[in-house]
TrEMBL record:
InterPro entries associated with the record: EIF3A (IPR027512), eIF3a_PCI_TPR-like (IPR054711), PCI_dom (IPR000717)
Listed GO CC annotations: eukaryotic 43S preinitiation complex; eukaryotic 48S preinitiation complex; eukaryotic translation initiation factor 3 complex, eIF3e; eukaryotic translation initiation factor 3 complex, eIF3m; multi-eIF complex
Any one of the GO BP annotations: translation reinitiation
Database matches in PANTHER family: EUKARYOTIC TRANSLATION INITIATION FACTOR 3 SUBUNIT A, EUKARYOTIC TRANSLATION INITIATION FACTOR 3, THETA SUBUNIT
Protein task: RNA-binding component of the eukaryotic translation initiation factor 3 (eIF-3) complex, which is involved in protein synthesis of a specialized repertoire of mRNAs and, together with other initiation factors, stimulates binding of mRNA and methionyl-tRNAi to the 40S ribosome. The eIF-3 complex specifically targets and initiates translation of a subset of mRNAs involved in cell proliferation.
Phylogenetic lineage: Eukaryota, Fungi, Dikarya, Basidiomycota, Agaricomycotina
Protein name per the record: Eukaryotic translation initiation factor 3 subunit A
Biased composition (Low complexity): 918-940, 953-968, 986-995
Gene from which the chain derives: TIF32
Family named by the database record: Belongs to the eIF-3 subunit A family.
Coiled-coil residues: 623-650
Region of interest called Disordered, as start-end residue ranges on this chain: 815-968, 986-1020
Gene Ontology molecular function terms on file: mRNA binding; translation initiation factor activity
Amino acid sequence: MAPYAKPETSLKRAEELLSLSPPKEKEALDALAEVFVSKRFKSTPITALEPVIIRFLELCVSMRKGKIAKEGLAAYRNVAQSTNVPSVENVIKRFLSAAEAKVAEAQESAASLLSTKDDSSAEEPEADLDAPLEPSTLLMMSVDAQKDRTDRQIVLPALRFYWECLRISLEVLRNSARLEIIYQQIVQRAFAFCIQHTRKTEFRRLCEIIRKDLATVHKYSHQQNTINLSEPDILARFLEIRFQQLNSAVDLELWQEAFRSVEDIQGLLVNPASKKALKPAMMINYYEKLTKVFKSEGGSMAVFHAAAWGRYQMFAERGAASAKEGQSGLSEEDAKKNVGFVLLSALAVPVTEDGEGKRHATKLVNLLNLPKMPTRAGLLKDALDRNILARTAPDLAKLYTLLEQDFHPLTICSTTAPIIQSLASSPDYAQYAAPIQHVVISRLFQQLSQVYDSVSMAHVLSLVSAFSMDEDALEKFIMAACKRAELAVRLDHVQKSILFLDEPFTMASSKVGSGPAAFTSNALIVDSKAGLLQPSTADLVRTQLSRLASVLHSTVQFLDPSIAVKAKEAQRELFAKAVAQAEAEQAAFSARRALVARRKELMDELSVRRATEEAAAKAEKARVAAIELKKKEEEDYKKMQRERIQQEVDQVRIDEARKLAESLKLRGGLKVDADKIDNMDTDGLVQLQVEQLEKEKREMAERLRIIGKRTDHIERAFRKEEIPLVHADYERQQADDLAAHQLLQQQTRDHAKAVHEEAVGLKNRLARILGDYQIVKSDIQKRQAGLFEERRKASGIKIAEEKEKLRARVLAERAERKRRAEEEDKKRAADEAAAAAAEERRQEDEARAAEEEKVRLEIEGRKQEAEEKARAAQREAREKQRQADAELVKAQMQREEEAMTRRNAAKASPAGAPPAPSSGAWKRPGAGSSSPSASSSPAPTGERRRLQLSSRSVPLASESSPAAAPASVVAPAAPLIPAVAMAAAATAASSPAAPTEDGFKEVPVRGQKWTRGVSKWANK
């Protein structure tokens, strides 16, 4: 461990490292980190540690070392939270301010980069204005994503690190009563970050972090120094954070997260201390956000949306009444607008709910703090009780009268249409236009069903014409109303009419009429508020028993008033008894709850202590066992490695010896006992192979000497027979060339004379029409000159216009090209930095791998050396000699057959008779084959006649044998005649020669001297 250094010394050392050029940030960070790992860290004064931790965190922010910053913050918190909480707060704020400054710096850098590109693009010379636009330039001009790319490369990394710093701060500060206020401030800062940069994903994660921290508070509430939610001040701060979370979710339009935030608030409101901690302004904000949450859910939540507006208005009125005069938070216009929201939201609730919003009715009712499920009729009654109708706008009051009080089925649509249109044009009330229109149509059919038994579809369409509803939409609305049991109708498509059903015994048990518009026990009177004129027969049958019971109850109370008095006294006594019993039960319950809580605390403490001791003992035992096991495994592994390496070395030696022995057996002449192979080393086998190769080389040299001597005599005889034939062919070719030249000259003169005579005749014929041609030509030129002048002027005007357009486009092109160049420079710099980092990592990996490779190379060294020797021996001795000799014999046999054929042909032809001339058969050098035959035309003067001879080099082995492979280059200069094959046939199988890379055959050294002499003689 490094010697202890004082915090002041470490800080000074870090500043010195940072003042170097370039600054050594990593070394400075390591110097500061030594303070936190020291044993004296906990006893160091906070005043000395605070500058160190601040500088440490600044370096972490500069280098984006989030994990290291978290460790340092946690260590400092453990030391300072019990004695100096403001110091922890200052350090956290400085940490976040540094990260936020990096974000602002990145944003400014991105903005300056964009502006620099724009300025530099505007300063380009105007020499390119007339240049044509390229297709790539047009494509880049059509799409401008420069800002997004710049933000992704510069701003986004800074934002990510700032978010990481916020998470680190929350994790360090959570679940501590001393740091609870700082925790709330950091949460508010995180909310502001999410809203400012529209980070929806981070906002969801932040909400999850807060929920987990709250669950941890509830779980460990019995421990010391934990947050106590029973205190009103602490609960008020928690509620404030949840309300701010709700506001942020609404601002970000995250409705699901907003609903979960409402549930979090409701979970805190059940705490008894919430009555003191809750402020009226919080509840007003709470219900205002609930209106937006339920509004986002659509029509299924319309009744809860209206209930939220009702609760909002109630708390707003209470707040205005309790406030001092002149301090009301709402102006008269805003109050009137809110009253309109209350009335319109209640009117927009469907006349009959379809039950979609009642699946979670209990939870939603609890969120609204309502005693029961809200209904449309109840919401309207509550609005009337609070005198909402008198305070709202006249149009809205008239709309309420038309929908809930008047009975005018033939004019209800036409009278409400202007009001609905005004609502649709209002930015505040436009959301209620479509739901209220559906309510109007529902009222229309309810009122029509009270007056008519049937009505034509055309008549209904005329009534709803103010809403621009066609027949399909109307039929769809009727079917939906029947499904909700709001109407009992039947559509007659043949008669194009709507039939209203009123069958008492078939409909009494159905759901029709069971909605809010159904009659109660006093339904015999006219209920104008429900839009009903008289009860139907089905309603009378369905409500007969309830009406009879109501009438009998009223009659009994009228005949004997004492019954009502006794019932009230019994009810009063029952209430008093219930209150007394409830108080006793409450006291017993409180005592039992306190006892259970205390027992639970004791059991938890005991279980935690026991679990801690068991875990420590188990961890120590596991650590000792792991150390012993690791030591044993290392020893076993080393032993196995040594044995494996020795076995591999022995096996490689035996394998190489066997391979060499097999190769020597295949070459023949060397016999090795298989039993002695295992005891013989590689050097001994190589020595045997070298001796065998020397013996074969001597035998091959002797055979080639004999073959070369015979070849010399045969070639000399061929040349003597060739000389007279060459002279005769040359004389014949000269005569043929002279005759051909004279014939060509005569043909050229005849053709030129014929062409001249034909041209003179054509001139004499065309001279007669020359005058007419000149007149027509002059007229055409005059007309074309005028037309050309007109087109030239029009083209000049068009070119000027196109130049102006092109100038504007090229200006934009310059800007885009400059922006693209800047982006490429920036990307190149980033790539170079990444490449430098990758190169550094690669060098480290190579240095680490070099040590491992060194060990591996020592193990495989002997094996590779043996393999190299075997491959060299195979390449230079065995394969080269065997393949080359085999191909040499094969090639010489083919040459012998060709030479015999030419010799027989020469003997068969007469010696003195010259060969017949061939017309045009002879070609000059370079025009045809490089070796013309003996029967071709004579050569030009100065050249001797050439015979058709085979190539002076042996063909490449691969041309006749695909299995042959090139070896070293040793080529004979003179051709080998066919007679050589008879002398070399006996040794072909045992000593073949390998082909070289350029197609020649390798021969022994003793034969090369003779073949060079033959080559000189042949070239003469």
